[in-house]
Amino acid sequence: MPELPEVEVTRRGIEPYVRGRRVERVDVRTPALRWPIPAQLAVTLARQQIRAVGRRGKYLLFEIDAGWFIVHLGMTGTLRVLPHAGIPAPARHDHIDWIFDEFVLRYRDPRRFGAVLWHPRTAGSIDTHPLLAGLGVEPFSPEFTGALIHQRTRGRKVSIKQALLAGDIVVGVGNIYASESLFRAGIRPTTAAGRLSSARCERLAQAVCATLAAAIERGGSTLRDFVGSDGESGYFQLDCHVYDRAGLPCRVCGTPIRHLVQGQRSTYFCAHCQR
Length: 275
Description:
Blueprint: H1 4-18, E1 25-28, H2 41-45, E2 52-56, E3 59-64, E4 67-72, E5 78-83, E6 94-99, E7 103-108, E8 115-120, H3 146-153, H4 160-166, H5 175-185, H6 198-217, E9 258-262, E10 265-269
């Protein structure tokens, strides 16, 4: 599933093309993804200029004068920039095209768990949208600190790995990046969130930012379907210290990496480096 690094890689790849350009028309071939696509979306967006492309958690936010259309990539979604010259005909899982003067922005989603939604400016700030209002802080924002993690985890018996995945403290730390961040911080993923000291929370905040930044630099992680807006795969999975390396030696100490299941998600860790 595309997480924050993959979505940010997509955003950075798309924005230079679409910002300041007008949508000529929108072709909606599949009227319902995870939720129904707004019936008037194509009419609303026709001839409208894209003012900016933002991101909140795993949601891409395309701003026009009248509001925002929101894109979530779900589990298998991708957004590709395709030049008009030689553009392939839409395939079975190519659900939406935003047609610009010189290129097409195409949304593909084999499992159809993604979403394309609309938030009018008359409804208020985009941050008030029901899918965004309850999200935690952005990991690269000044608000994300060890002190915040410490404050939000007091009294919580859930494991720190599950607390990171919940998204109510910080957004975008998916399964791969939670395991890798905890390794960088030297924290065992089964540790109760409420037991972490202030110092360990500070190490964890720094580790989360470092892990996500490294993943963005490597184009995200491609385990199955993800490709960026240019069709290139991500390579962060090749640099993982623990994720999907069960039984292999730790890159730091040589201890075999262990695997366990937490909340139906695979977790990987080094028993020597993570205490």
